[in-house]
Write a structure and sequence with these properties.
Structural class of chain A: mainly beta
Mean pLDDT of chain A: 97
Low-confidence stretches of chain B: none
Order of helices and strands of chain A: EEEEEEEEEEE
Largest sheet of chain A: 7 strands, mixed
Radius of gyration of chain A: 13 Å
Shape of chain B: globular
Helix content of chain A: under 10%
Mean pLDDT of chain B: 96
Radius of gyration of chain B: 13 Å
Strand content of chain B: over 45%
Oligomer: heterodimer
Strand content of chain A: over 45%
Largest sheet of chain B: 7 strands, mixed
Shape of chain A: globular
Number of helices of chain B: 0
Largest interface: A-B, 21 and 23 residues
Distance between the termini of chain A: 40 Å
Helix content of chain B: under 10%
Structural class of chain B: mainly beta
Order of helices and strands of chain B: EEEEEEEEEEE
Distance between the termini of chain B: 36 Å
Chain lengths: ~120, ~110
């Protein structure tokens, strides 16, 4: 079965950095685009970033553009999110999600909590 | 950016009730809209895509429809396991956007 497992969350000070990972299994990772979606505590869902199956295209939400970088390792079936210049408003549970074309999230990980606080 | 306005934000209903949730897109998105269900502490689950196509394994009491830029999720007879928060999402263009959510609670 499809499994997505995020890791790398934690507490970080404003201006700091974190790298999230999403380990995948149960599907042909190299054939599918992937996304990151976040949810601030008690709030709704916010799409963060997209990466095409081969890494050739990437898109970002305006709120993270220039600070976050999505990438993937197709040899290890892992998705990443490098988060720099973190702000308090980036505090959220970050989910990775498998794409079903176009831009449908058909499988989700349980998420990893990122807390940005001094 | 395409805005998706979801209503109501909160809904109180009883088991067996017919429930309707609406999303309105700020511009034409054709049928590029999906619905998700989220229970507390869990990841969202895909229910419906392309406005009206039921995801495999989702009970037939869930249905979706579209009229122009207005989209509707209907639960024909609310079951205890349906109490959750529901989100719509437009798939048409980046940035991908969600509605604000509708929390369905037990009356």
């Amino acid at each position: 079965q499809v499994l997505l497992v995020e890791s790398g969350g934690g507490v970080v000070q404003p201006g700091g950095s974190l790298r999230l990972s999403c380990a995948t299994s149960g599907f042909t990772f190299t054939s599918y685009a992937m996304h990151w979606v976040r949810q601030a505590p008690g709030k709704g869902l916010e799409w963060v970033a997209f990466i095409r199956y081969d890494g050739s295209d990437k898109y970002y939400a305006d709120s993270v553009k220039g600070r976050f970088t999505i990438s993937r390792d197709n040899s290890e079936n892992i998705l990443y999110l490098q988060m720099n210049s973190l702000r308090t408003e980036d505090t959220a549970v970050y989910h990775c999600a498998k794409d079903r074309h176009p831009n449908l999230f058909d499988y989700w990980g349980q998420g990893t909590l990122v807390t940005v606080s001094s | 950016d395409i805005q998706v306005t979801q209503s109501p934000s909160f809904l109180s209903a009883s088991v067996g009730d017919r429930v309707t949730i609406t999303c309105r897109a700020s511009q034409d998105i054709s049928s590029y809209l999906a619905w998700y269900q989220q229970k507390p502490g869990k990841a969202p689950k895909l229910l419906i895509y392309t406005a009206s196509t039921l995801e495999s394994g989702v009970p037939s009491r869930f249905s979706g429809s579209a009229s122009g830029t207005d989209f509707t999720l209907t639960i024909s007879s609310l079951q205890p396991e349906d109490f959750a928060t529901y989100y719509c999402q437009q798939l048409k263009t980046y940035p991908l956007t969600f509605g604000g959510g509708t929390k369905v609670e037990i009356k």
